[in-house]
Structure prediction request, 151 residues.
Amino acid sequence: MLPPRANASGPSRARIPPDKTVAARSPRPGRKQRALWTACGLAAVALGTLGIILPLLPTTPFLLLAAACFLRGSDRLHDWLIHHRRFGPLIRQYREHHAIPLRTKRTTLLLLWATLIFSGLFVLEVLWGRLLLLAVGIGVTLHLLSMRTMK
Prediction:
């Protein structure tokens, strides 16, 4: 609720801008900020969904980002994401255990290296592009292997 307004003709109204009094008491971000958080969350969900198909895009970090954005922007979308039958378990497992299931690690590494090898052999012709793919592959592999594994 908004604070009671002073009489428009009174001197206190002229000294304190109404925006600052309302913003200081507002526990949630404003409508524009919530819309921005929601838009960022939707973009993160889109990138996370692409990450299922494209191994160079990580799925879980984008879904965690989306959950954080929705927490600030849309309760409805946050609940949808947390309870989603595909995405929800990834987010909940990571939040509770800070770990990735062994099956997910294996599948991710298999798809990652299959895609990188295919791209390096049949798509890229320049050496620096192949070396870049190799560096990305090694980096992602090391990152995945450094994370705890759930059984």
